[in-house]
Amino acid sequence: MNDLKRIVLISTGGTIASRWQGSGYAADAAGAEVLAGSAVPEGVRVEVVDLFNVNSSRMTTRRQLTLLRTVHEVLADPGVAGVVVTHGTDTLEETAFLLDLHHGDERPVVLTGAQQPYGTEGGDGPGNLCDALRTASSDTVRGLGVLVVFDGLVHAARGTLKAQTLAAEAFADPGAPPLGRVGFSRVDLYRRPLRPAPLPLPRAVYAPDYADAELPRVDVLFHHTDGDPVLLRAALAAGARGLVLVGTGAGNATPEYAQAVAEAVGRGVPVALSTRVAAGPVAEMYTGGGAVDLAAAGAVLGGTLRAGQLRIALVAALLADAQEGADTAGLLASLVDPGAPGGGVRTDEAVAA
Predict the structure, then answer these.
(1) Antiparallel, parallel or unpaired: β 191-192 and 180-183
(2) Which of 132, 142, 236, 299 is 20 to 30 A from residue 25's alpha carbon, by CA?
(3) Is 347 annotated as catalytic?
(4) Where are the domains of the chain?
């Protein structure tokens, strides 16, 4: 019994815990119920923490920070071999990235979920959970940071997005292959992810008034045909502390947007630039309100991060740089591009067969 690897399962809700409510599905099942429907890999002992039970669309920054704090508290126990988090798929990519930005432990944290509700005959939840438990208990993935395990594939947190609304193979990185695969009672790893040096835990999560503390508002704005900066200025008026602009193409908008970005940056509100295109980096190619002008106005180019994860990077930078006079934009740039000098701790390298 003492030889079993202890894996802590933190349950947060999502489809994997959802049951029919009369008009639709909603998170309802406790972590122990979800676990009872799954096989547990040989040599693993699971302990369950029911943190909260919400649909993924109801995830908030405060809940994500509560989960971040809980993961760190769990890993304070040296007897824990790894952590699995069950989570709704809609915002899983954001939560995984936030955890990864603050994760410096060698032990794995693995997020998983389901596309089919709890108790569905032939549903994918039990298999995904079993694979996640196997991955979290594997020495192969030590030092890789936070992972997403879904439909037999192992993904890095960074860059992994929900790519299918309903299909079983829900997650993918548009710019890179999976890290590995789970199967035949083992985890096969093909490459190691690129990651920045981990951030310390935000001071906010341990503040006595955490439950009522104000957290930074970061809004996302989507450029489109006839788009103008009316909503950008409305976000500023609503108290936004940071903004993510989702441009067209390689990160383009209009001269009016560039002017509004300059106004925001001049007021101390950082702006990050992403793109609505599925794959590829943001790049300074076009003027006339394009990324050339947006960067000149002070926007931080988001590299290959899409809007959800770029927003998380900006939230993390704001939380880390809460003190007066901090360089939020500089920290954000280092989180966006771990390959920059002094930014990364690991290289994206193939693993020898």
Answers:
(1) unpaired
(2) 132
(3) no
(4) 5-193, 216-336
Distance CA 107, CA 155 (A): 16
Distances (CA, A) of 111 to 9, 38, 132, 214, 353: 10, 15, 7, 27, 26
What digits encode the pLDDT tens for the residues 303-316? 999 999 999 999 99
Confidence tier at 348 by pLDDT (50, 70, 90): low
Distance CA 326, CA 314 (A): 13
Q: What distance in Å separates the CA atoms of residue 5 and residue 128, rounded to the nearest whole number?
A: 19
Kindly state which CATH superfamily the domain 5-193 is placed in: L-asparaginase, N-terminal domain (3.40.50.1170)
Q: What is the 3-state secondary structure (H, E, C) of 37-105?
A: CCCCCCCEEEEEEEEEEECHHHCCHHHHHHHHHHHHHHHCCCCEEEEEEECCCCCHHHHHHHHHHCCCC
Classify strands 109-112 and 80-86 as parallel, antiparallel or unpaired: parallel
> In this structure, are residues 129 and 112 in contact, taking their beta carbons and an 8 Å threshold?
yes
> Which one of 12, 61, 70, 89 is the catalytic residue?
89
Q: Is the pTM of this model over 0.90?
A: yes
Same fold? 5-193, 216-336: yes
What CA–CA distances, in Å, run from 272 to 32, 37, 220, 305, 311? 40, 42, 9, 10, 8
Tell me how far the alpha carbon of residue 82 is from its chain's centroid: 18
Give the pLDDT band of residue 340 (cuts 50, 70, 90). low
91 is catalytic: no
3-state secondary structure of 292: helix
Q: Per the residue annotation, which of 15, 70, 95, 254 is the catalytic one?
A: 15
Which CATH code fits 216-336?
3.40.50.40
Look up residue 99 and give its amino acid: L
